[in-house]
């Protein structure tokens, strides 16, 4: 596995591989890799000739009051997980490498990015779409891998790829969970022991809501309430949102029709966690 | 020369050419080709192995009150000019081919696209940047050719390419003019004979302003006024803007320092014309 810091060098290395007919799989990350990322890389390894992992904590997708500064960074451990999962190349650019001049160009995926996390974190998906497209243009992958845990991000990227005529297949990979159901997330390491103990309530709430839907309930309000009642029982949790949305444009539903998603975001102390389930 | 209507077919044809090591030159147009476009294509012909011309009147860059419907369309004549200028492939997609689903993704080049035409035509450069990036993603050219007549468009595209890490060289090609100085434009064919006679006043005004600047004047207001006095003498002309801007971000200057641009937009009857000169 090779670690590359320069976009130019990465492009040149990949050029050679592409000329020899290799397909390129790409896993963009913000580092602080965990078993969820490992699964993305492993999937890319199975399906592609060359596997590229990028590690870049993108300032553009954090609001000034958010956790950009304290976001966990651990390059050595990330290299180890990348290597063990089958990565060939790790792209670890500096902020100056990605933004050598003030970024004046932005990619906006309207509608899909407006609700849920888009409403709670204004500008977040603009930052995500912009950096992902920049990385896509550097790597020019055949396939790119994203986790279902960030379902709205996935929907935003899929729509961007389709709308912008990008010749890239987006592969969605199932959420990896701890044994108590908590979705793997780099932000889990912010949690104090008591918070960690409360955190799986989000997944339990999603499962309870999904169970009601699977039993035949079609009223989105009742489905939401079946989850919300569990979340409200956890006094250390503040609900950011808990919603029932369609799976393509992430718009709120009143009457559900599978496939649809139930998605939630909660605050535990100073940590914000998200999760979702697909009802298909 | 081959005419292609499908993005998929174009991609496949170009794939073969690229694999054999050909460089791809790209000239995106809205059709109604004239000698200015011919020069873009000829430049691409000299510098590239394969020359692709796209013809697409992009609804996204026209406001509802603008001339989208009456914009001149003449495919047969466009094919002839393309062929005579050295094009190998003409891409002529339908609106449905370019926008099979509602376009929810938009590319915005802030600052560079805000002033001049960006102020007169809100949303115009968002439409331009979005379609050009879509076309870039379909063609994936090595070099793309744009005319200096649309200097702000050129600045927007150059900034987009730089900000979005696109591996494309943007080539700017000099404005082609009628013998009386009028810049070639598809919209010139809207002009009635009396209007056509008045139209070169825009270039004369730009030249008068440039002449004052070259004589050593540094006060942008005086430079503007040297042009505006000529435009105001033409009673059939209404000035949209006449400004002195820097050449990278198209921002208004108070004190000039070459290189900079003098740019103007005028209305003659129901026709809007633009032009500019670089003072270097």
Structure characterization notes:
2 copies of one chain form a homodimer. By secondary structure, chain A is α/β, with parallel strands linked by helices. Helices cover 39% and strands 22% of the residues of chain A. In chain A, the strands form 2 sheets. Chain A has a 6-stranded parallel sheet with strand order 1-4-3-2-6-7, with helices on both faces. In chain A, a hairpin with a 2-residue loop joins strand 9 (260-268) and strand 10. In chain A, helix 2 (35-47) runs parallel beside helix 3 (75-85), helix 6 packs across helix 7 (151-163) and helix 9 (201-214) runs antiparallel to helix 10 (220-233). The N and C termini of chain A lie far apart (39 Å). At the A-B interface, strand 5, helix 6 and helix 7 of A face strand 5, helix 6 and helix 7 of B.
List the helices and strands and how they pair.
Two copies of one chain form a homodimer.
Chain A: E1 2-4, H1 7-19, E2 24-29, H2 35-47, E3 50-55, H3 75-85, E4 89-91, H4 95-98, E5 105-109, H5 117-120, H6 124-139, E6 143-147, H7 151-163, E7 169-173, H8 193-198, H9 201-214, H10 220-233, E8 237-246, E9 260-268, E10 271-279
Parallel strand pairs in A: 1-4, 2-3, 2-6, 3-4, 6-7
Antiparallel strand pairs in A: 8-9, 9-10
Helix pairs in contact in A: 2-3, 6-7, 9-10
């Amino acid at each position: 596995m090779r670690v590359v810091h320069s976009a130019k060098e990465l492009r040149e290395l990949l050029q050679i591989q592409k000329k020899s007919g290799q397909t390129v799989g790409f896993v963009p990350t913000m580092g602080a890799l965990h078993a969820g990322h490992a699964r993305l890389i492993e999937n890319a390894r199975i399906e592609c000739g060359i596997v590229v992992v990028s590690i870049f904590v993108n300032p553009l997708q954090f609001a000034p009051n958010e956790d950009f500064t304290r976001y966990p960074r651990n390059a050595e451990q990330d290299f180890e997980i990348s290597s063990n999962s089958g990565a060939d190349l790790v792209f670890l650019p500096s902020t100056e490498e990605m933004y050598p001049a003030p970024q004046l160009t932005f990619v906006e995926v309207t509608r899909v990015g407006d609700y849920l996390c888009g409403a709670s974190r204004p500008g977040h998906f603009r930052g995500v779409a912009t950096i992902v497209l920049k990385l896509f243009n550097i790597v020019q992958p055949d396939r790119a891998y994203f986790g279902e845990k960030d379902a709205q991000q996935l929907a935003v990227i899929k729509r961007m790829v389709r709308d912008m005529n990008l010749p890239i297949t987006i592969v969605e990979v199932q959420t990896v969970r701890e044994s108590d159901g908590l979705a793997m997330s780099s932000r889990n390491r912010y949690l104090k022991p008591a918070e960690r103990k409360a955190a799986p309530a989000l997944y339990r709430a999603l499962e309870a809501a999904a169970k009601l839907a699977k039993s035949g309930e079609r009223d989105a309000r009742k489905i939401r309430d079946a989850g919300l009642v569990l979340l409200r029982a956890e006094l250390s949790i503040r609900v950011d949102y808990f919603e029932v949305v369609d799976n393509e444009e992430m718009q709120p539903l009143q009457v559900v029709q599978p496939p649809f998603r139930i998605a939630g975001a909660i605050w535990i102390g100073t940590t914000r966690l998200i999760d979702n389930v697909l009802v298909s």
